[in-house]
Design brief:
By secondary structure, the protein is α/β, with parallel strands linked by helices. It has helices at residues 3-6, 11-18, 22-28, 42-53, 64-76, 81-84, 99-113, 118-130, 143-151, 156-168, 179-191, 204-212, 241-248, 257-264, 273-289, 302-314, 328-336, 344-353, and strands at 86-87, 94-95, 229-234, 254-256, 293-296, 318-324, 364-368. The strands form two sheets. The protein has a five-stranded parallel beta sheet, sandwiched between helices. Strands 1-2 form a two-stranded antiparallel ribbon. It comes from Fuerstiella marisgermanici.
Length: 373
Amino acid sequence: MNWQTLKQIPLDDILAWAESQPWCRAMADCLQDAEWHSEGDVWTHTKMVCHQLVKLEEWPSLTEQEKTVLIFTALFHDAAKPLTSQTDPDTGRVTSPKHAVKGEHLARSILRDIDCDLMTRKEIARLVRFHGRPAFLLERDDPTHEVVRLSWLVNNRLLYLFALADTRGRDTDSMTRPEENLQYWKLTAEESDCYDQPYPFANDQARFLFYRNTDPNLHYVPHEDFSCTVTMLSGLPGSGKDTWLSRHRDDLPVVSLDEIRNEMKVEPTDNQGEVVQLARERCREHLRAGTSFAFNATNTQKDTRQRWLDLFADYNAAIEIVYVEPQFNLLLKQNKGRSNSVPENVIRKLAAKCEPPTWTEAHTVILTNGESN
């Protein structure tokens, strides 16, 4: 069943579809800590959360898109527990460390396989990643900074509504995450003007510096006087990054890791140290001259992007990241048509670890399927 069908059928039919999937069967076989989840296995809890969503007072006022996002967030929010659960041999307590982090990747992969559109997939995956944050706001050193930080990653209103359903979707008598904590999240977000929208920073540079600063100032208004603009391309092999550049930034000089590898006759499987070193030097040449340029590489993981973004920021460049991702079948077809095609199993491994860029990383972020944008 594909995404277009799934998002139009009733909740019970969505649950029936899920029960036919291997990731769901793993959830049904995965027990949880009784103190937090006396209802039992992960799938039982997941179904309870789904049914609590439609009982929310706010549910009738939500758009169909918002309802779909919340239902599929519920489906996947604990889907990685079978991959992460462990039992303490001394106490018998069950924990699932980093299940939300792994759950984000799992949700993105499953949704990609059923042809869910890029923007919806991003929204669901991010809600899965941060679904537990509202319950622990009181433990944060600066609660206001917490809700502001997440407002550019998720919709705080949807996150709050999901947290309500997640809290109510269990049989535990002694609730360790009281709803009062969730109300505090809502109140803090409303007071910070980021409950149903991203926090309104003074300008793009203010937002950029906020996420780079270990002790950020929400009210700082920096002067925007950039030396140049760097356009960083991001996307899996075969996604169409070169095509996007030729259509939208054809006037820019390009620093391309693929082109440098060809020049140096270095295979992608060889040591990339000299390739990266030369690419950094070519970037520095443009940066020192104040020349806008494009940097073209896969850049599909945040840590990899960050090393390049730090370089660009050191030269006071305005940074835009363009993430290109067509439907996966089209991507595989386009890759096969390239002269330097990448083995399909390698692309699938890269896709499983892919982290699309967010507004926390750059002054501008463009997400596109590469076809008509």
